[in-house]
Amino acid sequence: MFEPNPEFAQTFSSISGEHSMTDEEADPMTKRWTEVDVPDQAGRVAVVTGANSGIGYDAARVLADHGATVVLACRSHEKATEAAGRIETQVPGANVSVVSLDLSDLSSIRQASETIRSTHDRVDLLVNNAGVMVPPYGLTADGFELQFGTNHLGHFALTGLLLERVMAAPDSRVVTVSSFVHRIGRIDFDDLQSEAHYRAARAYGQSKLANLLFTYELQRRLRAAGSTTIAVAAHPGAANTELGRHVAPAGLMKALGSVFSQSSSMGALPTLRAAADPAVRGGEYYGPRGLLEQRGYPKRVGSTARSRDLLVAERLWNVSEELTGVSYPLEGKRVTS
After folding, report:
1. Dihedral, CA atoms, 38, 43, 48, 52, nearest 10 degrees?
2. C-alpha–C-alpha distance, residues 261 and 194, integer Å
3. 204 catalytic residue (yes or no)
4. N or C: which end of the chain has fewer CB within 10 A?
5. What is the CATH number for 209?
6. pLDDT tens string 37-48
7. Is 198 contained in some domain?
8. By the 8 A CB rule, do 171 and 123 touch?
């Protein structure tokens, strides 16, 4: 009999013990924010990574349905083209295009960024959604641990290379998808690439914690530069998508998903709210409102003290610039609050 990845199960148990109910979660009258609440996106350009399936696909579909010009930035050009075709079928008149992007390869990131810059003079919305979760140990094309390299460094590089286009759009947003698993994450500067010891769930937690540290630090730097662009984070809770393929076989994941998780369209709602709700402010974090933030409609949620550590955030930023070779076009004194 197959059992799900025991390390991931233990990780989920430890996260469950940390959760405490917020005032918003306890309030049964909290508004249920849905796809219908996405305002008109006509005239806006959205770039969504990993948009060929799961949460990324549903986010791209909804944005296109509300009038946005959507770029599907995906590793597989074939799968992205198929996804674009599905969106065009579901949303007649949708304006969608495809860009090849492998976030585990800095040369691919640079090429994709150049393609986007050459075809769009601004990007109103950058959704850093793509990722890998608890795979066997592996390295990116540039020698980084696969999860840290793809989930954090890849999106760090992409955002930096597109930031001038993002900042060219008024009231633009960078939305980065993290995870409730960030709660077990720690940034191990002595072994960022897990060369000394690899535990898949811990490495995943580190990469998702890095996503939040990046979001909060980017927001501080944008504010210091006087930009109207904001950085926001989201997490989908437990969504039934292909991301969990290394946790358990597909059949078991589907069976478990029907009981313990929610659909990818529901899982996409926190990302969509972070991306489109006019009430969202820079540096906020959105996730499901249900028990343990696993299911439900999106609300603003909290994150760990480690995700708010200013010294760690600044150090991670500097290390990320060194590792990727990407510097951000931001000026101004860094805000430390």
Report:
1. 90
2. 29
3. yes
4. N
5. 3.40.50.720
6. 999 999 999 999
7. yes
8. no
- Degrees (nearest 5) of the Cα angle 271, 283, 218? 100
Query: CA 313 to CA 296: how far, in whole Å?
Result: 30
Least confident stretch, 134-138, 245-249, 326-330 = 245-249
Catalytic residue among 57, 137, 198, 204: 204
What's the pTM value of the predicted model, to 2 decimals?
A: 0.88
Tell me the C-alpha distance between 241 and 133, whole Å. Answer: 11
Give the SS3 label for residue 46: strand
In this structure, is residue 299 part of a structural domain?
yes
As given in the structure block, the two tokens for residue 171 are 């009231």
Asked if 24 and 289 touch (Cβ cutoff 8 Å), the reply is yes
Written as six digits, the tokens of 25 are 């979660």
- Give 8-15 contacts, CB < 8 A, sequence gap 24+: 8/134, 8/200, 8/201, 8/247, 10/201, 11/181, 11/184, 11/201, 11/202, 11/205, 14/183, 14/184, 15/180, 15/181, 15/183, 15/184, 15/292
Q: What is the dihedral of CA 30, 15, 158, 269, to 10 degrees?
A: -30
- Lookup: tokens for 102: 């492998």
Mean pLDDT value across residues 149-165: 98
The per-residue pLDDT for 78 is 98
**Domain interval for residue 121:** 40-324
- Structure-block tokens of residue 151: 């989930």
Interatomic CA distance for residues 297 and 119, integer angstroms: 35
**How many domains would you assign to the chain?**
1
pLDDT tens-digit series, residues 257-267: 455 679 999 99
**Residue for token digits 């233990």?**
10
- Report the C-alpha gap between 50 and 130 in whole angstroms: 4
- Identify the bridge partners of residue 288 per DSSP, sorted by sequence position: 298
pLDDT at position 114, please?
A: 98
Nearest to 219 by CA among 267, 176, 251: 176
